[in-house]
Amino acid sequence: MTPEDRRTPPAPNVLITGVTGIPEVRRGDNIADLIMGNFELQDFDVVVVTQKIVSKAEGRTVTIDTSAPLEPQLEAIILSESRRILRRRQGLFITETHSGYVCANAGIDQSNMPTGTIALLPKDPDRSARRIRDRIRAKASLQVGVIVSDTFGRTWRCGVSDVALGVAGVAAIVDLRGSRDASGRELTATQVALADELASAAELAKPKDGAIPAVVIRGISPSYFRESSVAGEIIRPYQEDLFR
Amino acid sequence: MTPEDRRTPPAPNVLITGVTGIPEVRRGDNIADLIMGNFELQDFDVVVVTQKIVSKAEGRTVTIDTSAPLEPQLEAIILSESRRILRRRQGLFITETHSGYVCANAGIDQSNMPTGTIALLPKDPDRSARRIRDRIRAKASLQVGVIVSDTFGRTWRCGVSDVALGVAGVAAIVDLRGSRDASGRELTATQVALADELASAAELAKPKDGAIPAVVIRGISPSYFRESSVAGEIIRPYQEDLFR
Question: Which of A45, A88, B54, B58 is the most buried (most CB within 10 A)?
């Protein structure tokens, strides 16, 4: 290592690539196979898959009666998918899902779905992520992370961004407590929502028309990969929450 | 274009690179020059700069009396930097800053700062971003986006993630209302918090020790670049907010 190398370590580089060529997903499809058939994965890749194709593959969809009024049907589905309603304004419900996520309308929606069909969130998004990860590992002997992502609104801030619903193989939260900054002071903002940042980053390579339902992120530190980590770690415990 | 090309458009690719070699920033330093001196920018790059070096360059720091108790001094600074206190628990304040951002402790903190020095948020982060953008444009004739980022906690979800405090040259929010999904249905989640997603993505190439205070994101659609767009667009109007 020359002195020059010591002064300037190599720039960290992260590459985000959309996986093209995935056909319309149907119930029973194997998402890991669809991704591996269209993209050459490597060790320490993180695969970000939209909730929508996971729900389709798992049959987490509901058919509604298009001849009857839509709103009461949607409301019934939202209530059955929620364990608590936090706020309600016109057609918008802010709910806590059975998995513990706080989001609009219990995460159900019609976009990128056939007419008359509503997508629900996967029953157990961490299990969905783990299944995809396990299949990739079994088939290709690769250590990868898998994130099932969805698009959520936020308090205080306009617009939506993608977050992690389910996680396997990569840290949901990176805990840096005890580590120090460049001047030796202990860091304060120390629990980094890595899985959410990965989900947001993936969105940059994914047009909203649903044509690219999976994205691969390459260049994440191998130290962030975990045998077991679940998106459930991201859910803020009720008693620690200042706004519920 | 062959039929094959039409079936599979090129994979969208986004590259995130940390800018190494930026020295400790001091009051009066020109951040655009520091970045351009260490990285060869191109048209349609987005430069994400941490709030911390912007505050240092702008002299937005406060010296505290290290022989006196810390907490009352911090509290006084937090109150003077806030226009409203939303919640308070032990040493933690959730405040609305004078710029309208809701965050912990009015965004002030000591990490990556010399002992006895507190960094405040820039007075007008959009103006800070615009100054950097204008300087890059004047010096290199490049069309770039600039984001001043900070690390915020979130309601409902554990961990922190990076968000946009100031924006110039690139859309803070991409408005897709009226556009359609692959099956022709109008999209529902249509206002994408692009600037926040860019800030989150940048975090992936930026260790928390502060050694890399700027990141370049390449591969964002040229259609997302704007002459004027401000992070203020991200602030949810008080009357639309369901949780304040």
Answer: B54
- Tell whether A157 is within 8 A of chain B (Cβ): yes
Q: Where are the alpha helices (DSSP H) in A90-167?
A: 125-140
Q: Which residue of A has its CA nearest to B88?
A: A242
Nearest-CA residue of chain B relative to A153? B189
Between helix A194-203 and helix B194-203 the angle, nearest 10°, is 130
Could A201 and B196 be called an inter-chain contact, meaning their C-beta atoms sit closer than 8 Å? no
DSSP summary character for residue A115: T
User: Hey, what CATH class is B61-120 in?
Assistant: alpha beta
Q: What is the mean pLDDT of residues A100-124?
A: 90
% helix, strand, coil for chain A, step of 5: 30, 25, 45
* Domain extent listing, chain B: 3-59+122-235, 61-120
Q: How far from A4 is each of A9, A183, B168, CA to CA, in Å?
A: 9, 21, 34
Q: Is A109 on the interface with B (CB under 8 A)?
A: yes
**Do B14 and A158 lie within an 8 Å CB cutoff?**
no
Per-residue pLDDT band for A208 (boundaries 50, 70, 90) equals low
Whether the CB-CB separation of A11 and B18 falls below 8 Å is answered with yes
Q: Hey, what CATH class is B3-59+122-235 in?
A: alpha beta
Q: Which of these CATH numbers, 3.30.1330.100, 3.40.50.620, 3.30.470.10, 2.40.30.40, describes A3-60+122-235?
A: 3.30.1330.100
At position A29, the amino acid (one-letter code) is: D
List the single residue in A with minimal CA-CA distance to B224: A204
Helix ranges, A8-57 (H): 31-38, 51-57
CATH class of A61-119: alpha beta
Among B182, B219, B234, the residue with its CB nearest the CB of A158 is B234
Give me the amino acid identity at A31.
I
Cα atoms in the 13 Å half-sphere on the side-chain side of A139: 18
Q: Is A101 on the interface with B (CB under 8 A)?
A: yes
Task: Report the C-alpha gap between B30 and A58 in whole angstroms.
Answer: 53
A14, A93, A216: best mutation site toward chain B, by most B Cβ within 10 Å?
A: A14
* pTM of the model as a whole: 0.91
Higher pLDDT, B80 or A180: B80
Cα separation, A108 vs A121, in Å, equals 6
CB-closest option in B172, B191, B242 to A94: B242
A22 touches B: beta carbon within 8 Å: no
* Residue among A107, A89, A109 nearest A98 (CA): A107
The bridge status of strand B46-50 relative to strand B145-153 is parallel
